[in-house]
Amino acid sequence: MTTDQVLIGVGLILVLAVGSQVLAGRLRIPALILLLPVGFAAGALIDDVDPEQLLGAAFSPLVSLAVAVILYDAGLGLDLTRLKGHTRRVVVRLIWIGVLITWLLGTLLAEPLLGMSRRAAIMIGAILVVSGPTVVGPLLSFVRPKDRLQHILIWEGSLIDPVGGVLGALVFHAVLASSGHHLGSGTAQFLASVGIGAAGGAVGAALLWLLFRVLRLGEVLGTTAQLAAVIGVAALCDVLRDDTGLISAVVMGLAVANLPGMGAPARRPFFETLVSLILGLLFISISATVTPHSLRHVWLPALALAAFLVLVVRPLVAAVSTLGTDLTRGERGFIGWMAPRGIVAAATASTFSAGLVAKGIGGASKILPATFVVIVATVTLYGLTAAPVARRLGVVRPSRSRPLLVGGDPWVVDLGLALKSAGLEVLMWAGEEEQRDRIRRAGIELAPGELLGAATGGAAELEGITAVYFLTAEDDFNALAAVLLRGSVEGTVHRLNAPADSQGVVAPFIGGEVLFGPELTWPTFSRRYEEGAAVLGQPADEVRPGSDPLFLVRRDGRLDPVTAGSTPLPRPGDTVVLLTPGGRAGEGPQG
User: Fold this and answer.
1) 370-404 pLDDT per residue, tens
2) How far apart are CA 468 and CA 536, in angstroms?
3) How many angstroms separate the CA atoms of 555 and 571, rounded?
4) Which of 75, 137, 151, 341 has its CA 20 to 30 A from that of 359?
5) Quick one: which of 110, 54, 33 has its CA closest to 366?
6) Cβ contact 36:287 at 8 Å
7) Taking Cα atoms as reference points, which of 81, 133, 126 lies closest to residue 100?
8) How far apart are CA 412 and CA 577, in angstroms?
9) Which residues are CB-neighbours of 195 under 8 A, at least 6 positions away?
10) Bridge-partner residues for 549, per DSSP?
């Protein structure tokens, strides 16, 4: 290709990838629903976007390294403390039982349905066992299922991708080396691959510990070092054994997220931006390699295969994996309705099908287009139906706000009681033991001590928390924590305003969402409480004169704070939480 053609091709792929994601965001649909057909159409209409012509032999290894970065980011979001009890049992079963059942049944149906040889059917069966966090994560963010369900499905997607990648590599080499009748002898090879990947991950984790704890790299250089370490270790593992770099990437992410004292810089927004871009580029590029001619005799049988995987295989896997656990019927049903195929299926199909075609394996040319159809069908189906199915099964988190109040002074606890009496599920956190005891005595749920530390360190998200309000006496703490916590919460993060005469180092000069009027600072609340003021919740039409509104609790459970820049207008049925000029909090809220 000429230089101009390369420039046009690279530019188009980038524009199409980002443009599809922007449009999907505006339409409020998963980006994959647009990325795959856009890439397919671009590949059919424009020769310059064919990545195999643009990159040649470099395309396949670049895809593998890009997927390793994605899986490292997925590993950063996996908290081992949440993988326990019945949740752990279900995840483990979904990995090993799910892989075996899906591989076996997918192979048995693919051979007659797609008209391919048994060896090609075994290959596509291995490819289609994976799901992946890159497709499950966005869908779950849109659906908002209950926390336990979200943990199970995210863990499954994050762990099954490297397992499926290694399985695909082993099956590929076994198919080339045999007639396909003795593939079970690859157990030792599979364990060897897992060992190499795990060892590489351990070495990578030690390298990251050295970079973070000894060299103490800052956030910018630290995130760059993470990227270099992940790609370097994954590349070395792949050289030693195919696709073991995927395992090493997940192990490295798990180590950074869970080992104490790692001191890793926050991964946002660097990795979120990078992973989003990589996903768009990969899906556009890989789908561009699928030609209309290759789909001509494949799309209908592949749709039937997708229907079989969705309606028969996945419900069976879910039923077996949740047997004997305490999951509800609705939770089991939703697990049985959530198994979209994603980037690892596309990447492994793109990588292995060409090699099998070159060796003359019967039906190997159908592997990539059939996988493409299954990905499009499952992502589209689950993307359009996951939310209504979750609502029908009763596994969606309540739409009512769930605020986290940081602080334990008497007026803050009364604020929590007022919000709780208005029907909200309130969570509180405080650093001093006296304040924590006050929260417990009030009957408000107390957040675990490590909650804020994990979230502000970039190692976890505050799942289920819709807003955070920093209400402590330390203005600098409020300001810095609010900045660090942005992006870890579904909603907004607010803080108290610093007094006009504040001597703080940070608070008077930092931006962010400031609560209440400019005069309602912590010293003002403390002084007015000493004078007999109270924080109460009252119907919107019964507000006392001279009271200062703090929050509006809407009829549907949404919480709207009063901020320095806006005061929400009450509507009939709303509850106003306000600071009254008199009365005691012990009288109890009236709303």
Assistant:
1) 998 998 899 889 888 988 999 899 888 766 678 88
2) 20
3) 9
4) 341
5) 110
6) yes
7) 126
8) 12
9) none
10) 578
215 to each of 96, 203, 263, 264, how far by Cα in Å? 40, 17, 11, 12
CA distances (Å), 68 to each of 13, 61, 127, 498, in order?
21, 11, 17, 44
Average confidence score pLDDT of the chain:
82
Please name which of 542, 580, 581, 137 lies closest in space to residue 338, comparing C-alpha atoms: 137
Distance CA 103, CA 303 (A): 17
What are the angstrom distances between the C-alpha of 247 and each of 184, 202, 207, 234, 334? 21, 11, 16, 8, 27
Structure tokens given for 544: 């006392």
Helix (H) or strand (E) holding 242: none
268-311 pLDDT per residue, tens = 556 677 888 888 898 898 888 888 888 888 999 999 999 999 99
Cα distance between the two ends of the chain:
71
- Helix 147-177 to helix 59-76 angle (10° resolution) is 150
Residues 6 or more apart whose Cβ sits within 8 Å of residue 283: 17, 32, 35, 36, 39, 343, 346
Distance in angstroms (rounded) separating the CA atoms of residues 566 and 568: 6
- Closest of 443, 444, 462, 464 to residue 453, by C-alpha: 462
